[in-house]
């Protein structure tokens, strides 16, 4: 698709086209950090749901861009940045999610799940190249007019299916344990603070110390 998008968005510049294509790959490591923080703070399930939304929406919107608009290259770069960040979060988040479900006695299930995840990535790459090959079979004028939009717009129905499947995703037991310990710690601190400053004896002692 690089050769088509080069003419659509980059005015025939190979350098500009490759830079636009490189944006998601540079963003992926940062996506692992950002969505990893979200997963640690708010839950693995939420992190994965946001990641799939980011990939689906940002990819589909790329197919809706109007090449003649001013600043469209910056819009494309921003959408590709979101795609890369989301893909990085997805890749790291899925492995974390499955590893936390790999409790004692389920090691073989965990290994199989991670293997399936890697195979599904390869399958997605194969399908993307198949769609790209199909687009290249269209007349050149058709490719430049609307054919280039097809791979991006196909992300919309696939994204809807993925979002619906993840609506019932449960939080991992490991994160629930971490959250429970954090809540207990916060409750203990709040109780200590309340006892320290709400106790009448302590209040009198503090007042006497202030006046002394």
UniProtKB/TrEMBL annotation:
TM ranges: 17-38, 50-69, 110-134, 146-165
InterPro entries linked to this entry: H+-coupled_symporters (IPR051084), MFS_dom (IPR020846), MFS_sugar_transport-like (IPR005828), MFS_trans_sf (IPR036259)
Bilayer topology: Multi-pass membrane protein
Molecular function, one GO term: symporter activity
Lineage top rank: taxon: Eukaryota
The keyword Transmembrane helix is annotated on this UniProt entry: yes
Main localization (coarse): membrane
Domain Major facilitator superfamily (MFS) profile: 1-212
Location in or out of the cell: Cell membrane
UniProt entry tagged with the keyword Cell membrane: yes
GO cellular component: plasma membrane
Name of the protein in question: ProP protein
């Amino acid at each position: 698709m690089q050769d088509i998008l080069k003419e659509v968005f980059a005015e025939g510049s190979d350098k500009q086209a490759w830079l636009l294509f490189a944006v998601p790959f540079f963003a992926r490591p940062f996506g692992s950090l950002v969505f990893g923080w979200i997963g640690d703070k708010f839950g693995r399930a939420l992190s994965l749901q946001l990641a799939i939304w980011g990939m689906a929406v940002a990819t589909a919107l790329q197919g809706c861009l109007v090449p003649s608009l001013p600043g469209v290259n910056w819009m494309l770069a921003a959408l590709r940045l979101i795609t890369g960040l989301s893909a990085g979060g997805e890749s790291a988040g899925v492995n974390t999610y499955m590893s936390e479900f790999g409790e004692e006695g389920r090691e073989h299930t965990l290994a199989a799940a991670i293997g399936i995840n890697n195979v599904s990535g390869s399958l997605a790459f194969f399908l993307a190249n198949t769609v790209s090959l199909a687009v290249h079979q269209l007349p050149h004028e058709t490719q430049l007019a609307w054919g280039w939009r097809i791979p991006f717009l196909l992300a919309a129905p696939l994204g809807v299916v993925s979002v619906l499947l993840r609506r019932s995703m449960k939080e991992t037991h490991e994160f629930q344990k971490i959250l429970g310990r954090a809540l207990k710690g916060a409750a203990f601190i709040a109780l200590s603070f309340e006892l320290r400053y709400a106790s009448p004896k302590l209040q009198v002692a503090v007042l006497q110390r202030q006046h002394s």
